[in-house]
Amino acid sequence: MTMGMWRRGGVITVALAVVAVALSLSAASAFGHPRPHDRHGDSPAFTISSVVYATASGSFPAATCSGPGALLYPGLTRCLIFTVQNLRHHQITVTQITAALDPAYPSPPPECAGGYLQLPTFTGTLVVPAMSAASTPGEPLTLKDSGTNQDACENFLYHFTYSGTASAPTRTDLDLSATPDPAGLGAAVTLNAHVTGDSHDASATPQGTIAFYLCTVPTCTGTTKLSSVLVDETGSATYATSTLPEGENHLFAVFTPLLGTWAGAQSQTVVEVVGSVVDHDHDHGDHDDSRSPDLTRDHGHHPHHDSFTLSCGSSSRPHCGTGR
Questions:
Q1: Type and span of the H or E element at 249
Q2: What is the pLDDT of residues 249-285, one digit of tens each?
Q3: Which of 16, 63, 122, 312 could potentially form a cystine with 320 if both were Cys, beta carbons 3.0 to 4.6 Å apart?
Q4: CA nearest 128: which of 160, 97, 172, 161?
Q5: Cα–Cα distance, 75 to 56 (Å, whole number)
Q6: How far is CA 239 from CA 40, 190, 254, in A?
């Protein structure tokens, strides 16, 4: 007898649903047609996909899975790996992923569901770098032998949903100013940077360091680090220099958090004019403001699903299960 469950479908698309710094990922059934519910209209924060393998390297959670995928037999356990793709510019930490049967689709026969169907669950710490992916250890996927005839399970198409939780740093914004502007050649120019956190606690101030940079070309593809200063209790850092070259100086600052609960940030670019003759009508033309993405205000979920098919029947074992 052969009894197979084939994985159909693909990526499950998920969005952030945040309380404080907690993310919530969820998925429901849909064949590649996500239904966004993000009230801010942002793109999904990350996606979840899975692959089923024949065997695990050892006990679960398994360090590796191997062998041809997706065939499942009564009483045998297969090895499923979740992969999380982080679409944000900041690291996230996934702590739980669970699978469930999608209630929008018909339920499996009683001898192929309930206590006979063991779905995979991940619990732990999965760090997913910004704009990158990470995979969980192998988790068990099992259809238990009911001890009765399980032929009714043949060719049944399972629809799974995934849900879980993760954490992400709180957004920060960084503002930079330079004074006086314009400045005479050799005169002191003071750079003032101020970082704020998008937190429910108005008194919370991001702690860390702010580095000040001088662009060696106007496009800032080349830079020189001027200094790095600790942020004070008000979220500010100041650096003074009298060595800026004559002409237009393109400057920006970068905040690096001390704790992982805060996100890093980069300021807008400011233009400081230095020289004995300056144009008082000079347009500073601030450049792209690449502040950190908002990870604390995304809500909703973007559903998709994975599905599995069960099949049985052969000359050696004409029935599913041990019953006759």
A1: strand 247-257
A2: 999 999 999 887 888 999 999 999 999 654 544 444 4
A3: 312
A4: 97
A5: 15
A6: 37, 6, 13
Instruction: Go through the domains of the chain in sequence order and give each one's CATH number.
Output: 3-168+297-312 (2.60.40), 172-274 (2.60.40.1940)
Task: Please state the φ and ψ torsions of residue 67, each to the nearest 5 degrees.
Answer: 90, 170
The pTM (predicted TM-score) of the whole model is 0.56
Instruction: For the chain, report the end-to-end CA distance as a whole number of angstroms.
Output: 13
pLDDT-derived band of residue 167, with 50, 70 and 90 as boundaries? confident
Residue 304 structure tokens: 């998709």
Residue 60's Cβ-count burial label (10 Å; 0-12, 13-18, 19+) is: middle
| DSSP assignment letter at 184 | -
| CB 71 within 8 Å of CB 160 | no
Q: Which comes out higher in pLDDT, residue 70 or 176? A: 176
Strand-pairing partners, residue 92, are 128
**Cα Rg of the chain, angstroms:** 28
pLDDT at 300 over 70: no
Residue 21 near residue 33 (C-beta atoms within 8 A) = no
312: tokens are: 């049985």
Q: Which residue, among 115, 121, 119, has the nearest Cα to 159 in the 3D structure?
A: 119
Nearest alpha-carbon partner for 311 in 301, 319, 302: 319
